[in-house]
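Limitations

Structures in this collection are predictions, not experimental determinations, and the ligand pose is part of the prediction. Treat each record accordingly. The example that follows, with zinc ion as the small molecule, is included so readers can see exactly what is and is not provided: the inputs are given verbatim, and the output is the predicted complex.
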Amino acid sequence: MSTRRRGSRSAPCPNRSPSVGSAGRSPSSGPISTARWAAPNWPSSPPARSNPPQCHARSPRPAPGRTHAGRPPPTPLRLEVDYAYATPIDAVVQVGDLAPRPLRLSAGRQSLDFGIPLAETARAWSVSITTPDGQRLGTQTLEISPFRPLTIYVLPHSHTDIGYTELQTAIEEKQVNNLLAGMEAARRTASYPEGARFVWNVEVLWAADLFLRRLGPEQREAFLAAVQRGEVALCGLYLNELTGLCRPEELVRLLRFATQLRAETGAPLQSAMISDVPGYTWGTVTALAHAGVKYFSVAPNYFDRIGDILVQWENRPFWWVGPDGHSRVLVWIPFWGYALSHRYGHPLPPARRGFRRQARAARLSL
Ligand SMILES: [Zn+2]
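Predicted complex:
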């Protein structure tokens, strides 16, 4: 940790050099720099009783909506300088090979934002602060941890749990309104580049059936057209069913509405979701595969009734072969029920920590 000692606030003196620290956090890769710098490396070392300015670097969140036209975005880096003298001075800050930046040092903290090139290996960059005429105030090394690029896919959808959070009639109204809002968002973004257009995902098709039965012909046509254009994506199952209670025919009928809609719209209905139920009977695989579903996203309850399924299979996609020996679907179990999935950057929720402890204890007792 760098320290900031209290001392007499004398006139600024170039020989009283800043100390520099860094504490970085990338929004998508964890800390990029955690080192803290202290004063001793300044070429013109200040006397021990001096009160040097201090400098910290951190990585702020990138501005939302920034696009980079296919190029990797720069890694944001914020350099903060604490200056403890009453009289301001002009300084120049040089970070690595980046263009020098002027900085007015005045009492208190000032910051400079940089965008540094993305790199997947650790780097050590020098940071120097000089006066405009070249007199060095200080220099230090900034350790930058490797940056790991991530591609994030966003699938907006709403969970269907009839009667659990609201009266059934209120849930029906919300699901219909969700679809209308999703279609409207898709219309508003229809001219965006591919990949940036809004797509509303219908988690289970009961909501679509409700929409088609409840609304008028014009809105029904709009819905089917949105499906055809890919603005509304359909998932195969009719409900978040307790499949273990289903007989084989009932498993097949869970996909019946999906195959009807596919025939009507020509939409490529290849995926299914099931959320907030603790398990899926084996015959579900055969029923899904026979309906043309290839991908199965499941989000079991995370707190109980699930054995060690998350310990074994969380975020480990696998091909699940049905009891007939050849039907199969690619299963992905993200963490959390409701397919809330990856809470990147958030601390582990207590429930998850508790689950982990239970799972470890269970394994130890075997
Ligand atoms: Zn639910």
